[in-house]
Design brief:
Blueprint lengths: L25 E4 L2 E5 L12 E5 L2 E4 L5 H11 L25 E5 L15 E5 L26 H11 L6 H9 L62 E7 L38 E5 L19 E4 L7 E2 L3 E2 L5
Parallel strand pairs: 7-10
Antiparallel strand pairs: 1-4, 2-3, 4-11, 5-6, 7-8, 8-9
């Protein structure tokens, strides 16, 4: 992981809020040095290493369907799911999959091989942010739910229109921890303190048995669960958040400078982000963070601050959304 500036020991991170929030609904994240990553969960989360981030403003909740609709009305923006895919990028795709659409989760009828994701993900023509599950679905009654079926380009376009940015992976993880160093979850180490569910996740055996013990089968309205220590909602579960960093298989670190803590680091480069298991598809991937309502302990225990996954920048799903940040120098 490269650093955008010199060792944090030479210049303290900005911690105090520089005035009022630049936009309504944002909270100040004070910045500081923290232990990023995990050495005891999934291998892509390691190695644990010290990172310093400067303070920044962050949306207290994910961008909602109502907010995204306002962006579309004001700009006429058309999301990637509403555009026909480029056949040159998908030489082996059947013709019916080259219509506008996106990936939709389909619950299976029983236990399945968890290495075969195509058993519960289906390319669905017509699926987009307005119709997250495809034709027949709509977001009219989900105005306060996080917008999903959002490709990276869509999230970046909204952020630019709003005068904001997408967070880096380090910023996102620092904010998700809520000031609790090294905790398992954004709220602490106990999964359900006093029997209370703290995030919208999957209860039961994924992908066929959803007990809905937390009260939500799909996405939940933003703010349905308690905020973390910084006042941020849904930094675990509900929908994954896009970050602005290219994917790497683990956290890069500078072995030649073990003394130095990177400040405001960024991830790898676009060439590192390609999927080595699919060399025929030269589609770069960004880091997504936070897990979703589809994360279950038997398959994807990733509603934790250190958890991270790659996602192709051209594709939305029913469980990926985003939130934005504003850094003081751009406020």
């Amino acid at each position: 992981m490269t650093s955008e500036s010199k060792d944090s020991a030479s210049t303290p991170a900005r911690r105090s809020a520089p005035g009022k929030p630049p936009f309504p609904g944002m909270v100040w994240i004070p910045g500081g040095t923290f232990r990023m990553g995990s050495d005891v969960h999934y291998p892509e989360e390691g190695p644990v290493h010290n990172v310093t981030v400067d303070g920044f403003w962050m949306d207290k909740h994910q961008v909602t369907n109502a907010q995204f609709a306002m962006f579309v009305r004001n700009t006429g923006y058309v999301t990637m799911a509403e555009r026909p895919p480029d056949p040159a990028l998908y030489p082996d795709a059947p013709p019916e999959n080259l219509a506008p659409g996106s990936l939709v989760f389909r619950m299976t009828k029983g236990p399945v091989d968890l290495t075969r994701v195509n058993q519960w993900w289906a390319w669905t023509p017509g699926a987009c942010w307005r119709r997250p599950e495809g034709p027949g679905s709509h977001v009219r009654k989900r105005q306060r739910h996080p917008v999903v079926q959002i490709a990276f380009e869509d999230a970046a376009a909204y952020a630019e229109w709003a005068g904001k940015s997408l967070p880096t992976e380090a910023e996102w993880e620092f904010a998700a921890r809520g000031g609790i160093e090294g905790a398992e979850y954004t709220w602490g180490d106990e999964h359900t303190p006093n029997g209370k569910y703290m995030a919208n996740t999957w209860q039961g055996e994924f992908p066929w048995q959803n007990e809905v013990s937390d009260g939500f089968e799909g996405t939940a309205p933003v703010g349905s669960f308690p905020p973390n220590g910084y006042g941020l909602h849904d930094m675990a579960g509900n929908a994954w958040d896009w970050t602005d960093d290219w994917w790497t298989e683990g956290h890069p670190h500078d072995a030649e400078k073990p003394c130095c803590t990177p400040r405001n680091p960024r991830g790898g480069d676009i060439e590192q982000s390609y999927d080595p298991a699919a060399p025929m598809w030269k589609i770069p991937r960004k880091v997504v963070k936070g897990g979703s309502y589809l994360c279950a302990p038997n398959y994807c225990l990733r509603y934790r601050p250190s958890a991270r996954r790659p996602h192709m920048i051209d594709t939305g799903t029913t469980h990926i959304g985003f939130r934005c940040v504003v850094r003081p120098e751009s406020a």
